[in-house]
Amino acid sequence: MSASREDLKEIEGIGAKTADRIRWAVNEQTESYGAESELAI
């Protein structure tokens, strides 16, 4: 959840685009539902 783009890129099979998409998805859920929501991861 808190991994940076650079941290994610160190994982085999994850490039810059995938890392960006993961970061977007994590941030989107937090922004849309709020940190206090049951739906937030």
SSE inventory with pairings:
Layout: H1 5-9, H2 16-33
Largest sheet, described in full? none
Determine the N-to-C terminus distance: 8 Å
Low-confidence stretches: none
Number of helices: 2
Backbone shape: globular
Counted up, domains total 1
- One letter per element, helices H and strands E, the order comes to HH
Residue share in helix: 55-70%
How much is the radius of gyration in Å?
A: 11 Å
Structural class label: mainly alpha
Mean pLDDT: 81
Oligomer: single chain
Task: Let me know the number of strands.
Answer: 0
Q: What percentage of amino acids are in beta strands?
A: under 5%
Short summary:
By secondary structure, the chain is mostly helical. It has one domain.
